[in-house]
Every structure is written in structure tokens, then in C-alpha cells.
Automatic annotation (TrEMBL):
This is Secreted protein. PROSITE patterns: PROKAR_LIPOPROTEIN.
């Protein structure tokens, strides 16, 4: 019972650290909505929304690499593009 509790705490700690990394990489300063252009351009409104997931993933990876470098671990590389 005690071992299981210890394992759960390790999982919780790992998730908490991962959450802090994600918040550090794309925290409120980066997630705030952009100010609206005045006046609203109809062409801009019809433009497709750019998927920002790749940019966020890149910042998260950069933050992880920074933290890993600070504690002396090897760098991680991004997943290959298929």
C-alpha cells in the first residue's frame, strides 16, 4: 500500500513539473488574445486561422531542453516530420 502511494506521488510530481514547463513555455503572456485591428478588415476575417500548435510545441521543447541542459542531461530532439 505504501509503495503504491509513493508511485502515485511520483506520477503527480512528474505531471506537476510537466505542467510548469508548459506554463513557462506558453504562459498567460503568450496565450493572451491579440488586440483587435481597428477597423476590422473583411479579408483578414476571412483568412484561415493559423494552427499555432507547432509553435507552442517548439517552445515547450525549447524549455525542456533548457531545463535538461541546466541539470546536465542530454538534449532532446524534435520528432521527425513524416
Amino acid at each position: 500500500m505504501r509503495e503504491e502511494s509513493g508511485r502515485n506521488m511520483k506520477k503527480i510530481n512528474a505531471l506537476a513539473i510537466l505542467g510548469l514547463i508548459v506554463l513557462g513555455a506558453c504562459g498567460p503572456r503568450n496565450l493572451a488574445p491579440a488586440p483587435m485591428a481597428m477597423p476590422m478588415d473583411p479579408a483578414a476575417a476571412a483568412a484561415p486561422v493559423v494552427d499555432d500548435n507547432a509553435a507552442i510545441a517548439g517552445r515547450v521543447l525549447q524549455q525542456i531542453n533548457t531545463l535538461r541542459g541546466n541539470i546536465g542531461l542530454s538534449r532532446c530532439s524534435p520528432a521527425p516530420r513524416w
